[in-house]
User: Fold this.
Amino acid sequence: MGKNHPNVDKYVVSRVRALESLLLEKGVLGPDAVDRVIRRYEQDTGPMVGARAVARAWVDGGYKRRLLDEPRAALADFGVDFDMLRVVENTPAVHNVVVCTLCSCYPWAVLGLPPTWYKMPAYRSRAVIEPRKVLAEFGLVIPESREIRVWDSSAELRYMVLPERPAGAEGLGEADLVPLITRDALIGVADIAPAPRRG
Amino acid sequence: MDGVHDLGGMHGFGRVEREANEPVFHEPWEATVYAIMRASLGTGLYNLDEFRHGVERMDPAHYLRSGYYEHWLDGIARVLAEKGVISADELAARTEFFAARPDAPASAAVRGTPPVAAQPLQWYAPASERPTTRPPRFKVGDPVVTLNIHPTGHTRLPRYARGKHGVVHRQHGTHVFPDAHAHGGGEQPQPLYSVRFDARELWGPSAEPNQHVYIDLWEPYLEPGAPRG
Assistant:
């Protein structure tokens, strides 16, 4: 196992089961809680709400303003009630990227659970001091003329990047745009790949 | 506290390694830890800041070699023991019980019937914003400087951003103050700001070009700064 992958303590499974049994006994943990978690996240396919909001922002300028200025109201369109989101917009002059150096804060409400790399020391330590190098490792080369803004989620605000609409996507409607939008682009470690030409 | 969790700017962790088609949970026990978190945070047993401080006090070497859900397990167990919900001894005894019976389900060690029914799972952390009762000290565009403090308790002022000059980018309203809330000091809500720092201010000549870091900081972390050209 490398430095970026957790090494699981051999007692961890026993310790989890011990804590689980104590909390079942004390009425803290309901007998169906673990099953409910698994069901919820098996059905939750990740960054769907974030991707849908971005696709709508790309095709609807009024929605884009709402997403940037009143994100809670904008998210309500997708049945999400979350008042802590802040959306930061990529432009030709600015690229945004999100990290949590102190723990692993992440906008679950719109992106689902975070990938392991987001939670490990390599990303958390480096994203604030050498973001260009980190992004280049992700395959994203940002020219020096383009400002990088790193958002360190130190409070309860949660950040999501509004990526630029890719070249070649001009003719696509909202529903066709959603599948182009990746979780990594909404964290800011990737751009949206150009849309495949149709016809 | 200046703990191992405060990773911003540290060297030596290597490349960011990604896993293709990563599952939501790698092992069943991770989902159990997740469920324990959702059943116990925000249900009156401990608060988010106490939980975070619980994780921060992990053995530093253990923190670095373990993953996210083990951090949660360690932090939750520590805080629940401090709150008297469980005892460290009973947790250790049951851990031995299950280590000797690797195929036994958690229910195998449960004694009696729970005294109360469990509360519903809390899928999101409790809201931190509170009504604003006084004008914030700083407005957008104000130069500020962060305190150079090294509290032994919980703080959300990262080490790499202490004693640094920045500019208020945005006001976020008034929020529960973690430095108090993690230590039984109540919520003591304070104005919260997004503060913009030039990377050269944070990292000196080794900064990458044309970069800024935005950090959300509570008012007690900030003093008025001198305008800079």
